[in-house]
Amino acid sequence: MAVSDLTIGFDADDTLWHNEVIFEQTHERYRALLSRYHDAATVDRTLFATEMRNLERYGYGIKGFTLSAIETAIELTGGQISAGEIHQLIELGQDMLAHPVDLLDGVLETLVELAPRYRLVLITKGDLRDQERKLTKSGLASHFQHIEIVSEKNAEAYSRLFARNGIKPERFLMVGNSLKSDIVPVLQLGGAGAHIPYHITWAAERVEAPPDQPGRLFRLAHVRELPVAVESWAGGMGARI
Description:
- This protein is of the alpha/beta class.
- The protein has two domains: 7-17 and 101-237, HAD superfamily/HAD-like (Rossmann fold, 3-Layer(aba) Sandwich); 20-97, Putative phosphatase, domain 2 (DNA polymerase, domain 1), CATH 1.10.150.
- Helix content is 48%, strand content 12%.
- The protein is built from nine helices and six strands.
- A six-stranded parallel sheet has the order 3-2-1-4-5-6, sandwiched between helices.
- Helix 6 (128-138) links the parallel strand 2 and strand 3 (146-150).
- The protein is elongated.
- It starts with 6 loop residues before the first strand and ends with a helix.
């Protein structure tokens, strides 16, 4: 049981396990499938525009991506894409859903080190069933006292989460790879953030980096650096640990 009243939130995709690299591999296969119709840049640009247009309908995740990929293929081929090719697109999505969950190096050891001293919560967005699947396969669920799967991660969503769980924003630190979803909203609410970039960032998650905020914003190169950053943050908060 945690002996500190501080809460540490963790993002899941590309913070605990690899995710965006799976999408990138699928993009390569998708470009190849449509290469006889359009160049790669046109395919990428049109697919991204379709995904952004459909976010309100489908939300984040593989299922929404697959539907957008099919819609884009029909658009880019002028309706000439065959049923067989559409079946290949469906298989791309199914392959992504069946992909193994590969933890990032150092994640398990870091959670094991932090869990006895702090309240750890998992906060991820995306398709409910797929996120539950990945969490189960990851074997990490037991390290978290609470798990939230939300449709969006913005200041409003974090405020609701804090209220439901009795979390004081000023005693909360969010760990994640996305400045847009994991760091900026929490800083806006008075919390702290530890940004650990992944080597690939989806275009929809790119925002301008916030200014330095000593004691509240930690820029890390690897999750193994997190315990030291947390200790620094906790010390500055006068945490009861």
